Amino acid sequence: MPENENTTVVVVGGGVAGLTLGMFLxxxxxxxxxxxxxxxxxxxNRQRAGALxxxxxxxxxxxxxxxxxxxxxxGHGDAELPLLVDGEKRFWRRDEDDAxxxxxxxxxxxxxxVALFLKEGGDLRFGSADITIHGxxxxxxxxxxxxxxxxxxxxxxxxxxxxxxxHGVSRTVIPxxxxxxxxxxxxxxxxxxxxxxxxxxxxxMAVHSRGFAAQITRGPEASRxxxxxxxxxxxxxxxDERIWTELETRFGEQPVVRGPIAGKQVVPLRGVVFSPMTxxxxxxxxxxxxxxxxxxxxxxxxxxxxxxxxxxAVVKHVDEGDSSLLQGYSDTCLAHVWERxxxxxxxxxxxxxxxxxxxxxxxxxxxxxxxLENLVRxxxxxxx
Length: 384
Fold this sequence. Notes:
This protein is α/β, with parallel strands linked by helices and 384 residues long. The protein has a domain at 3-75 and 99-181 and 271-346: FAD/NAD(P)-binding domain. It contains 8 helices and 20 strands. The protein has helices at residues 16-27, 40-45, 54-62, 106-119, 240-251, 299-320, 324-353, 362-373, and strands spanning 3-6, 9-12, 32-35, 51-52, 82-85, 88-91, 102-103, 123-125, 129-134, 142-146, 152-156, 159-162, 180-195, 203-207, 213-217, 223-229, 261-275, 278-279, 282-284, 290-291. The strands form 4 sheets. An 8-stranded mixed sheet has the order 6-5-14-15-16-13-17-20. Helix 6 (299-320) packs antiparallel against helix 7 and helix 7 (324-353) crosses helix 8. The longest helix is centred in the last third of the chain and has 30 residues, at 324-353. The protein is globular.
């Protein structure tokens, strides 16, 4: 039999959601253990989309952990980021919140969160394999796993936080007759390319009759290129030369620097929400509970929102014996999630349907173009 340990919260998954939750709990003196199935090198180097809105930046500052935003790529509120509409350079309307938003390659934020969590004495266990969750309907759930040496381990806890992503084990513990899934498929996809070239400026997007395109920074020498394509496309249909030629066509006169392509995949655009986010002593957060269209760039911000709500709820329970926030966690999170999903659907349809009308028709394109004008400054407004 494995040796049993005990803690207050076991966090399953060491991505942005799990690490942020662990950091917040650590700062408030609540015992927690983070179990991550991959090794540290994998976790700190996996390439993921990255942007953090002003509310996320302010949240980290409020909790005193804004040092994790050092070296993430810098703010973009003061930069003039172009939107190319059929080759014509336009500029986004901005508000005060834009000045605090940051481009934030996810692997850099994760790396910084890992370093800070460990520096402050956090319990983070990489290489935790075969994780299983038991007894979420009891007062003391148990999480079992195998350590990197293959030894069986078990941790008893008060709460399990499932932050192990869309394909993780946490959500599968909730009975099928309890969990509901609501999903929306947009009907088009992104060809997502990781390229070994810098993005200059850090984010360029294009609306074009051939489809949406973008190049977003992923660090000083890397960027993500996105090309709208049919959901039926395969990567074999997109050799490197076709990718660069297509990006140049959709960008028009905006210069494109070609370089080595490290990876590519076809990603259908969709939104997914699972409900409830709580069952027994299990609480879901981040991608384990919801996926949002990448066009919104709100995945990390939603993860941070979930993490803060759950941290505050656990702290209130531990410090005051008050479980009201835990009982309301799912409803409170889902209200915010649906609000952001609505915004993401609007943004995704506007940016894609205002260019390529082949899937939705000319009427929808004209509507999307009208909506697009609400996002950009008038043509006679000089940049900067």
